């Protein structure tokens, strides 16, 4: 027992050290790449012609479109003639955004998200971060798949976060009910789940181009409200909302985007790795398949409830 105890202690230390390593490597990477200066450096290699396109006659559905990156992306698509459908939780704010954007799009952009720093449940008994960031993305996207399958050049873009790089997929506690609740890490776990969703959908639906992206560290209402300490420390270096939305728009309208394989993770118009070096965040295929199964079970429950069966 004494030997087992020492082994467990060492394992716990390894876990703690790995967490520290992931966070440290990620933060250094973020200071170099995710800030406004990171965007300005990357944008030197952008081809402006990629997004100088007319998308009239195409429809785009943008979730979380009344503010921040969602609104910026919707505005840019609208400027290019697209039909933009805004999906927002608050009707008044949606109408205000619509009034400012005025227009509509066959592509879908999953931008809606939240970071709730205390463990709170929805009226259906689901942890709010998981319900919004993962399950909501899954239910909306799968509901639209039959329509998207029929369209030419259909695309699904999910706005994730580089924070997912510090998390390994954990299917044992999807509702974050065990241990101390850390809203930032729960959010990062949800964003890892979105990357897995995108990869799995890309394998299953070859007629649709799926992508997932990191907008960088942008100055948005969500960052200010959910991460006030981070915002105060970093506010002078954060990207603008338009800079955060740039890759979303590129993925939605550029013909160059669909020349790349479906299912990739993007940052500043380039596919980038979904794991940090030596960070041990790779998960076995069976865990990824299990995530899809669990989400489908939740989805079916909601469909049954809505039909009154």
Question: Can you describe this structure?
Answer:
With 309 residues, this protein is an alpha/beta fold. It is built from ten helices and seven strands. It has a seven-stranded mixed β-sheet with strand order 2-1-3-4-5-6-7, sandwiched between helices. The radius of gyration is 20 Å and the shape is globular.
Condensed summary:
The chain is of the alpha/beta class. It has helices at 2-33, 36-43, 68-79, 91-101, 128-150, 183-204, 221-226, 228-234, 241-253, 285-307, and strands at residues 59-63, 83-87, 106-110, 154-159, 208-214, 264-267, 270-271. Strand 3 (106-110), helix 5 and strand 4 form a beta-alpha-beta unit.
Q: Judging from the principal axes of the Cα atoms, what is the shape?
A: globular
Number of helices: 10
* Cα Rg: 20 Å
**In this structure, how is the largest beta sheet organized?**
7 strands, mixed
Strand content: 5-15%
Strand order of the largest sheet: 2-1-3-4-5-6-7
C-alpha termini separation: 53 Å
- Helix/strand-derived category reads alpha/beta
| Helical coverage, percent range | 40-55%
